[in-house]
Amino acid sequence: MKSIPYRLGVETYCFREFKDNREVIRQMKAAELSHVELCGMHADYSSTAAFDPTLKLYRDAEISIDAIFPWGMSNDAAKEESYYACAKAAGAQAICAHFGPVEIESFRVAERLAEKYDVKVALHNHGGYHWLGSSEMLDYVFKRTSPRIGLCLDTAWAMAAGEDWLRMAEKFADRLYGIHIKDFVFDRQGKTTDIVCGKGNLDLAKLDATLTKIGFTGYAMLEYEGDADNPLPAIKECAAAVRKEFKS
């Protein structure tokens, strides 16, 4: 597996104001990024036929779809099996997943479909407001599910939940299938603001050391939600910061 600087990608939610994938690809190329986590606003995952035109665009641009991020999941097999089929068609490592509260037995659907299509499901820790933002709850889920269910660790949302994101990476090393490299600063009320990676509370050198220590081989995506109308300058800065700090 190539080291993170060479396989660094971006979550397309950063480009949420740009619905045309051609423009998303243009901006990715400008930032010299060739890997992507494709979120639901930039792809139709209702069937592989609906997804094929988007898949072709990214393949023609020589951009690897390392992960997909459909909108919220609830282990509805009839609706969500196509997500797994699309991930398989794209050659994605994982489906990054935002689940609302479900019973543990509900994850059997995700386990079965992930096994069928040979992909992983990476739960996204969406901060303290979300039930899977807690390392304690993630531990509870992982102890009761197969290794097909793992984590996409969002560094900034871990901070927002009061979690130690480095400890989370180590604790869940064997289930760490992806990472969102994202940084926050906080005001006195705890309100979050996106900032270029490494300029806030994210220590990129320590992140590099930790991921190297645990032998991380998952997907790695930049995520910056500021400047929605013009995110490219900050995305370029984020990419440059990661490439500078990561030794591997």
Main features:
10 helices; alpha/beta
Q: Give the strand line-up of the largest sheet.
A: 1-2-3-4-5-6-7-10
In DSSP terms (H or I, runs of 4 or more residues), the helix count works out at 10
Mean pLDDT: 95
Alpha-beta classification: alpha/beta
Please describe the biggest sheet, giving its number of strands, its sense, and whether it closes into a barrel. 8 strands, parallel, barrel
**Helix and strand element order:** HEHEHEHEHEHEHHEEEHEH
- Cα separation of the termini: 11 Å
The value of Rg in angstroms is 17 Å
Instruction: Say how many strands there are.
Output: 10
| Helix content, binned percent | 25-40%
Uncertain stretches: none
Strand content: 15-25%
Described by the principal axes of the CA atoms, the overall outline is: globular
Brief account:
The chain is of the alpha/beta class and 248 residues long. Helix content is 40%, strand content 19%. The strands form two sheets. It has an eight-stranded parallel barrel with strand order 1-2-3-4-5-6-7-10, surrounded by five helices. The protein has a two-stranded antiparallel ribbon with strand order 8-9.
How would you explain this protein's 3D organization?
With 248 residues, this protein is α/β, with parallel strands linked by helices. The chain is 40% helix and 19% strand. The protein contains 10 helices and 10 strands. The strands form 2 sheets. The protein has an 8-stranded parallel β-barrel, surrounded by 5 helices. Strand 2 (35-39), helix 3 and strand 3 (64-69) form a beta-alpha-beta unit. Helix 3 runs parallel beside helix 4. The longest helix is centred in the middle third of the chain and has 14 residues, at 77-90. The model has no long low-confidence stretch (mean pLDDT 95).
